[in-house]
């Protein structure tokens, strides 16, 4: 298991450490965070033990981000913490991370124009979808470097690598064009998919294995036929995050009609049932020219954030099946919160992908 064998390069940067949530507000209570810096470290250690060549992310221009995200949203992410501290919230009430308390719901405006509020405490809710995604001093730089990692992996695939892994932290699949949440700030997978398209790939398929539905990725590409989104995840109708999206009848709109596939799973779903969902995803992206795998491993049976009961063998088998589809692939890290199994799950998944590719 730990003999060096990984062929695919892994893009990783220590800059992920700059993002440390410290806590997250959930149902009004400050609880310990799950998306912690240790995640990036155990993944790195497992990659090195697995023999992967570690590559540093190359800085990319802002235009690679605006291919997916709203420029004003990017400005907000970059400047919000500075403005928050300047407004005094770190001293009083003693919160040094940007955390919203009011949200400008569309129905609260009707036909009245929505205008930016003066208070930083209110501005915090303009682009945030939840209270569990604190934005601290180093969050922007870490998120920006994670996006660079995904872009670097996409560049390497465009240059001929069959598969490249991007150890993105913080993760990204809950982020849309102009909103963030779910422990995510920039949509690394969507940014990689857009880069592949602009690099000449006609049709990109996204396969999202994270335990949670990638609502951000889905909404970004929902009306596009050139990027297929497919996801297997815990059923939001059983009460799970991201709650508002991820149902099987969300199949795409306009040019994207039929290009979105959701396979919601019941609580307690194990390898057999979950792999049937993975097969639906594989069928959905089978005719794509390149793949982006949103590799969240929080569906694992020991993970504290989901009730799925997928094993390490299940994740390896899923990636074996995805690898055997054939197109070149960028594999992007999403969730996975059990620090004792995380590294092995990631390397086992990448190993499965490579086995599928040769087999
Ligand atoms: C990238 C990713 O996997 N994001 C998922 C974030 C889900 N967060 C939902 C809120 C979590 C509250 N968890 C409380 C656990 C108490 N036992
Ligand atoms: Zn997740």
Describe the model.
The protein is an alpha/beta fold. 33% of the residues lie in helices and 12% in strands. The chain is built from ten helices and ten strands. The strands form two sheets. It has an eight-stranded parallel sheet, sandwiched between helices. Helix 7 links the parallel strand 6 and strand 7. Helix 1 crosses helix 10, helix 5 packs parallel to helix 6 and helix 9 packs parallel to helix 10. The longest helix has 20 residues. The protein is globular, with a radius of gyration of 19 Å. The model has no long low-confidence stretch (mean pLDDT 98). The structure holds N-[3-({4-[(3-aminopropyl)amino]butyl}amino)propyl]acetamide and zinc ion.
List the quaternary state of the chains.
single chain
Gyration radius, rounded: 19 Å
Structural class from helices and strands? Answer: alpha/beta
Bound molecules: N-[3-({4-[(3-aminopropyl)amino]butyl}amino)propyl]acetamide, zinc ion
Number of helices: 10
The coarse overall form would be globular
Order of helices and strands: EEEHEHHHHEHEHEEHEHEH
Mean pLDDT figure: 98
Give a nutshell description of this structure.
The protein is of the alpha/beta class and 359 residues long.
Topology:
Elements: E1 10-11, E2 24-26, E3 29-31, H1 37-49, E4 54-55, H2 63-66, H3 71-86, H4 120-123, H5 139-158, E5 163-166, H6 188-198, E6 204-208, H7 215-221, E7 227-234, E8 260-265, H8 271-285, E9 290-295, H9 312-323, E10 329-333, H10 342-358
Parallel strand pairs: 1-4, 1-5, 5-10, 6-7, 6-9, 7-8, 9-10
Antiparallel strand pairs: 2-3
Helix pairs in contact: 1-10, 5-6, 8-9, 9-10
Bound molecules: N-[3-({4-[(3-aminopropyl)amino]butyl}amino)propyl]acetamide and zinc ion.
């Amino acid at each position: 298991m730990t003999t060096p064998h990984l062929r695919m390069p892994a893009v990783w940067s220590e800059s992920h450490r700059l993002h440390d949530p410290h806590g997250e507000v959930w149902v009004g209570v400050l609880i310990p965070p799950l998306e912690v810096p240790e995640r990036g470290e155990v993944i790195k250690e497992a990659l090195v033990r697995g023999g992967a060549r570690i590559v540093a992310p190359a800085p990319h221009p802002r235009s690679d981000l605006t291919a997916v995200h709203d420029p004003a949203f990017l400005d907000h992410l970059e400047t919000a913490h500075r403005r928050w501290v300047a407004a005094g919230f770190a001293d009083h009430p003693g919160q040094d991370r940007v955390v919203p308390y009011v949200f400008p719901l569309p129905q609260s405006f009707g036909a009245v124009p929505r205008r930016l509020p003066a208070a930083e405490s209110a501005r915090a809710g303009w682009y945030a979808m939840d209270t569990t995604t604190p934005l601290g001093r180093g969050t922007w730089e870490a998120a920006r470097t994670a996006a660079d990692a995904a872009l670097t992996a996409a560049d390497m695939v465009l240059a001929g690598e069959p598969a490249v892994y991007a150890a993105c932290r913080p993760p990204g699949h809950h982020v849309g064009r102009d909103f963030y949440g779910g422990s995510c700030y920039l949509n690394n997978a969507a940014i990689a998919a857009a880069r592949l398209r602009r690099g000449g790939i006609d049709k990109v398929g996204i396969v999202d294995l994270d335990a949670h539905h990638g609502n951000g990725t889905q909404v970004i590409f929902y009306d596009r036929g050139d990027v297929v989104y497919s996801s297997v995840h815990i059923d939001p109708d059983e009460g799970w995050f991201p709650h508002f999206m991820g149902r099987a009848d969300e199949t795409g709109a306009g040019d994207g009609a039929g290009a979105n596939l959701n396979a919601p799973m019941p609580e307690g779903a194990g390898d057999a049932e979950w792999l049937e969902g993975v097969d639906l995803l594989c069928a959905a992206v089978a005719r794509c020219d390149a793949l982006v795998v949103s590799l969240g491993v929080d569906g694992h049976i020991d993970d504290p954030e989901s009730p799925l009961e997928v094993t390490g063998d299940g994740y390896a088998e899923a990636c074996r099946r995805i690898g055997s589809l054939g197109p070149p692939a960028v594999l992007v890290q999403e969730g996975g919160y059990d620090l004792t199994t995380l590294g092995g799950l990631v390397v086992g998944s990448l190993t499965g992908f490579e086995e599928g590719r040769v087999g």
